[in-house]
Amino acid sequence: MSKFWRIVLGIETLGVxxxxxxxxxxxxxxPGAHGDHAIDVLSILCPGSWLFIKCLDCEIGFDIRSxxxxxxxxxxxxxxxxxxxxxxxxxxxxxxxx
Length: 98
Hints:
It is built from three helices and no strands.
């Protein structure tokens, strides 16, 4: 596997891990400030969760699994784009090869 794809997949993996951590905190809330701060930080790092911030306290029609799946898919796309940009910047240029 080339360096380009290792960088892209590594950054996408980071997005999946962040979404999984956010899901675990959403599904198993812990009382206290530490859990709230962790959810705040992970919500900033998981752009897909921005769609569901207003629905965290909704009792009708809010399914945590579907929200996490949408967050995961959004993270895959966004972190894939970030990974592609990062890999393009970091990968060596092949000058003169056709």
